[in-house]
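--- STAGE predict ---
source: upstream dedup step, 1 unique chain passed
mode: sequence only
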Amino acid sequence: MRTLTAGQYDPAVIAFLTMAAAPRAALLQQLVATTGMPLGGWQTHFNMGHDFYQFNLIPGTLIGLYDARVSAPMGSALAAEGDPSSTFINASFATAITSYLNSQLQYSSPSSYVLLRNAIQSWDYSHDGQALPDTIPDLAAALAQNPDLRVLSVNGYHDLVTPFFQTERDLARMGPTPNVQLRFYPGGHMTYLDDGSRALEKADLAQFYLSASMAP
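--- STAGE serialize ---
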């Protein structure tokens, strides 16, 4: 999928958006075969967003944004909030954080803990003269200023909100650097929710901390 995306799909999308160039039939068939999305979906939404994919991949079914492995029938309680993978875990997270704050951290507040709100819709993302931030120059500058800085990027294969390959491509813009490591696991936005991935991630984190602390 990396090869197909970078070598064929991405250039075709750019041509489609800039010159209204129709995609090749062979490419459309490849996309159908590799994604499961029917041909009609690719014909009408060639520059496909995650929302269209989420609602139309499986007829009558909504797949998760934060973890596309989670799905629920349209109209069900699990699909009512727009992301079954988030709805599935919200109650457990709310209960756990409240208990953790009160009992272990001894922190109390008259306000209730809020997991998610729509403040993101009014956030000012402008940065360095751009409407949307590009954090790669900032990271490159930080690495240049502090040669001892180490970065571990952890990504889930099934995350539709922050796709792992986009992160990989963004970091690759800095060129090869031993100070930046990438790790990928089966799972969504919160890779540690997957029992198998959590053990792998813990081992990778332990090795990362050890190597960083032993670096000259």
